[in-house]
User: Fold this.
Amino acid sequence: MITTKLSSKKKMRNTLFITFLILICLIGRLGYIQLVQGRELSELAYQQQTLDRSINPKRGTIYDTNGTALAVSSTVETVTVNPGNIAKENKEKVAKKLSELFELDYDTVLKKVSKRSSIETIIKKVDKEKTDELRVWMKENNISEGINIDEDTKRYYPYNTVASQIIGFCGSDNQGLDGIEAKYEDELKGTKGSIQRHTDATGGEIGEEGEKYVPAIDGNDLVLTIDLTIQSIAEKYLEEACIDNECTDGGNVIVMNPQNGDILAMATYPSYNLNEPYEPYTDELKQTWDSLSSEEKTTNLQAVWRNKAIADTYEPGSVFKLITASAAIEEGLVTDIDKEGQFSCTGGIEVAGVRIKCWRYYRPHGSESLRQGLMNSCNPVFIGLGQQLGVTKYYEYLEKFRLLQKTGIDLPGEAGSIFLAKEKAGPVELATISFGQRFEITPIQLATAVSSIANGGTSVSPRVVKQIINSQTKEVTDIPVKTNGTVISKETSEKVLSMMESVVSEGTGKNAKVAGYRIGGKTGTSEDGVNTNKYVTSFCGVAPIDNPQAVVLVTLYNPTGEGGHQGGGVAAPVGGQIFSEILPYLEVNQGNTDEVEVAEQVTTPDVIGKTVTEAEKIMKESGLELVVQNAEEEMDKDNSIIKAQTPQAGITINKGNKVYVEKE
Assistant:
């Protein structure tokens, strides 16, 4: 009996101990959840009970230098559903309406409407006309909840292909993917807003607090240095040149203000439609697009997105003789650029046992001054100057002209130059560098270097964005002009500019002449790689010589047309065409009117809002030719209305020039 009592007490003690131990564990666990995991679990509960619909901000507008919008965000809307808030008997009706209205698959929409989830996206970036129709239907069918219509934005580029490689484009989520859109993503994107409300697991509302609205903050606006008119002019003549000269690898044009580094235009051919960046961009590609693999499509698209002016390197050829001439004059190797007989061309020059020919080796230039050497683009003259400078001094000038580093232009994807290391550069390598071969630079590096010559000797960094406008305060932040010290003296600059003027007036660049204007320049021709049988032809011009306002660099890749591949015959005329329109537009005073016959000039009339028929008549009366860029084969000229023109109204241009327009 006593044994039984003791056994019962022992069992009771054990039970109490175990119960106490379990209680201690539970208290410990509760303490751990409360003190250690409390914040994390509270956040998870909030996320589970809170339906958060994001509101995309309006992406900042990109303007040209004159305030013309190049990239804008138009208002669209996004449609979502809360399946738990849609009555069971209405699910099929809602799915049917949504699929019909937005041309979606009914079964897919029904599946979303019937899901056990808090929110499902039906369609993004819908025009307001469609969502207004949905609002009317919801009201007529007494459906007040479960379907959400939220404001969104969609990127739109009014000028389609203009400046495509500069501006870049955005993805479906409004994130910048290339060009300015990518480089200035943090300025342009803005801050997302939201619409919040408490829900249960099925998406039904908890409580009566209603929705909490947190407004989005729009992105900041950008003002570019790009001038839409100059950009359009550059693109027009570049396209004509690439087509006429059958440039298999395209081309590019840079127009730069040498005084402050502003890029007034940067054109690349071929270009693409910013509103359809993933579509084929040439007639040939359109015919074969569907048969291409995804890898082939990607390769083609990335090639046209690429801004060759900053991302591709090439041998500059004889344009680089401007750098050698500048260094030689600055170092006192040449004091009188017109001294007869200072140089002699015998058809070639021997360097370290290697004979390097002049391009006109079959008929040597003979006795020359430095001016004549540049006019004739005579290789031996500049090889000799390079030898006198020596490797160390020559590389010092490469550094001064910032040719051994990137320019720092505010665009993504800039490449650097490719020079042999100074320690490895021997006599032959120095000789070839002196006349622009066996090394590679980018077009933007060359345009920037020539700008240093044009502006009196100061190195200035190129820029594409000049102002940022705060979307909230409208405060304007100016991007400062960046200078990098003195490269050459003003006296050296003036001498080189004088020789450049002679190149255009009498030398290899005479095809760049423009009646009434003092223009200087230098032509260039180089091989595109070793033994490729391809060439790069170029022309770099400066105007007006007495006060340079524009440096124009034309680069054409592998011209295979009947005109050949020499810079003077292929690229120089393009430079002249561009100067003929941008100099009057920039209101540059004419200079050499006594030397050449001045072409008759007219002011471009305003034809926006006119029919094509009316516009043709107006242009004809003004002595100009109208070209409709987006004309169909059977265009109704009497009813087609002009919506844009280039050059714009009020610009003085040469009589007989073309005015390009777009119809609605």
